[in-house]
Design goal:
Elements: E1 4-5, E2 7-9, E3 12-14, E4 18-24, E5 27-37, H1 40-58, H2 62-78, H3 80-91, H4 95-118, E6 122-125, E7 132-139, E8 142-146, H5 154-165, E9 169-173, H6 180-192, E10 199-201, H7 206-215, E11 221-225, H8 228-240, E12 246-250, E13 256-259, H9 265-277, E14 289-293, H10 294-309, H11 329-345, E15 348-351, E16 368-373, H12 378-381, E17 388-394, H13 397-405, E18 412-416, H14 420-429, E19 434-437, E20 457-458, H15 468-471, E21 472-479
Parallel strand pairs: 1-5, 8-9, 8-11, 9-10, 11-12, 13-14, 13-18, 14-17, 16-17, 18-19
Antiparallel strand pairs: 2-3, 4-5, 6-7, 7-21, 12-20, 15-16
Helix pairs in contact: 1-7, 2-4, 2-6, 3-4, 4-5, 9-10
């Protein structure tokens, strides 16, 4: 029998009404454990516990919050290899990527431990004589969090850590597909001394547990990362209830990487392959549209194909593997569907796109590169969320910029060029929240803001000091001394 991992509600480990096996996508015979599914009633209990804990936690000292978050950071970093292995085993990232993500989670907790001590206010002179005006930031209340499967420890970390640092209480529902890393964070925080009810973990289906979090009047803010379609439902639920909830959404991307004729070819190829195919392409910041100027197009495509031929696709835990499996059968089916759609639209499959058999049963897919595509094809407009990218040929920088911006999304964009003029112009005119120059579109720092524009993001930014915009509310106080 596999171990049963329970929900954390009001400081107690609680069995659910059911349990789901956590399956390794590199080896579907490998069950990581059974993870309890919370009932609707248990989700309500978690929210009640968070509400009851809020008054004391919101008035706790910055030192108390610092010490708990720092203790959690220290343990995550000390266990980064173990946690990285868990991550790779449940999600399918290669082991180096898994360890890197676990390290990032520890760094995030360390950063926000410091932020607990750095939260400041402001004092301004009033326009009225003798009146003092103070602006302070206060926690918003009970924060509900719904996190995705593709970054199972980093995304929970960058939501949980700032929420706690600024004095909020938390109810989090991790992705049903990959609950292991979120459970590990819960266990670490629990042993770090987080007071009862301040942090609550409820695992289960979004249609059950997630919906309770969205609809409950005692949840004052919602932070969601996931698909555009679900994000729209989250936003609607947040503003249609009473009282209305503060909402933060991070959703999809169809991120362009522009490659100009003057780009360093080696740099451009590495940016494209890393951004489009590493982490099995399962990143909202993946550069799935490669917009390449005519003069370098053929050399670039040939070089990318040669690079792809050398990549090893296999069990994420094996050494020397560059790309792990797709996360599950449903996502694999979606990837294959879009490969078929691209072929039907007239795109040329330059490399890959085949199912692969390996020593262990898993969801292995050869990375796919399409050429002879246009920006109007579905492969250019819809998020695949897999190791699939397409190349669009352009004649000029102006055409490249126009096509890069011709999308409903606006998360990340990139350009490879040796021209300072074009790099500067692209940074200013790219309609994306994050812009990379001679770097992959995927890969960001933990201490600076993360987020996009248009259909990619809604609400305040995540990460860095900018996270306070979502997790705090500004109070303006006027005082007339008498």
């Amino acid at each position: 029998m596999s171990d049963l991992y329970k929900n954390l509600i009001g400081g107690e480990w609680v069995e659910g009404h059911a349990a789901r096996p956590n399956i390794n996508p590199s080896n579907t015979k490998d069950v990581i454990g059974e993870y309890a599914h919370a009932s609707r009633g248990q989700a309500e209990q978690a929210i009640a516990a968070a509400k009851a804990a809020f008054p004391a936690w919101s008035r706790s000292t910055p030192q108390e919050r610092y010490e708990i978050l720092k203790k959690a950071s220290d343990e995550i970093l000390a266990r980064k290899e173990e946690l990285g292995r868990l991550l790779s085993r449940e999600e399918g990232k290669t082991l180096p990527e898994g360890i890197g993500e676990a390290t990032r989670a520890g760094q995030i907790f360390a950063f926000f431990a410091g932020e607990a001590l750095r939260l400041s206010g402001e004092k301004l002179a009033s326009v009225r004589p003798g009146v003092d005006v103070d602006m302070t930031r206060e926690p918003v209340g009970v924060v509900g969090m719904i996190t995705p499967w593709n970054f199972p420890i980093a995304i929970p970390a960058w939501k949980i850590a700032p929420a706690l640092a600024y004095g909020n209480t938390v109810v989090i529902k991790p992705a049903d597909l990959v609950p292991g890393c979120a459970w590990a964070i819960a266990d670490i925080l629990h042993r770090a001394g987080i007071p009862k009810g301040v942090f609550n973990l409820v695992m289960g289906r979004g249609s059950e547990v997630g919906q309770i979090i969205l609809d409950h009047p005692d949840v004052t803010a919602i932070s969601f990362t996931g698909s555009v379609s679900t994000g729209r439902k989250v936003a609607l639920a947040a503003v249609s209830g009473t009282p209305m909830k503060k909402v933060q959404l991070e959703m999809g991307g169809k991120n362009p990487l522009v490659v100009l004729d003057d780009a360093d070819l080696k740099t451009a190829v590495e940016c494209a392959v890393n951004g489009a195919f590493f982490s099995t392409g399962q990143r909202c910041t993946a550069s799935s549209r490669l917009i390449v100027q005519d003069g370098v197009h053929d050399k670039f495509v040939d070089a990318v194909v040669e690079r792809l031929k050398g990549l090893v696709v296999d069990d994420a835990l094996k050494s020397g593997v560059h790309i792990g499996p797709v996360v599950d059968q449903s996502q694999l089916d979606q990837d294959l569907k879009y490969i078929s759609i691209a072929k039907d639209e007239g795109a040329k499959l330059a490399w890959g796109g085949e199912l692969l058999n390996r020593e262990t049963p898993g969801f292995y897919l050869q990375p796919a590169l399409f050429t002879e595509t246009t920006n109007q094809m579905r492969i250019s407009r819809e998020e695949v969320f897999g190791p699939v990218a397409n190349v669009v040929r352009v004649k000029s920088y102006d055409e490249a910029l126009s096509l890069a911006n011709d999308t409903e999304f606006g998360l990340s964009s990139g350009i490879c060029t040796s021209s300072l003029k074009h790099a500067s112009h692209f940074r200013r005119n790219s309609e994306a929240g994050m812009v990379m120059v001679n770097l992959p579109t995927a890969g960001v720092d933990y201490h600076v803001p993360f987020g996009g524009r248009k259909g990619s993001s809604y609400g305040p930014r995540e990460q860095g000091a900018y996270a306070r915009e979502f997790y705090t509310v500004v109070k303006t106080a006027y005082t007339l001394p008498v």
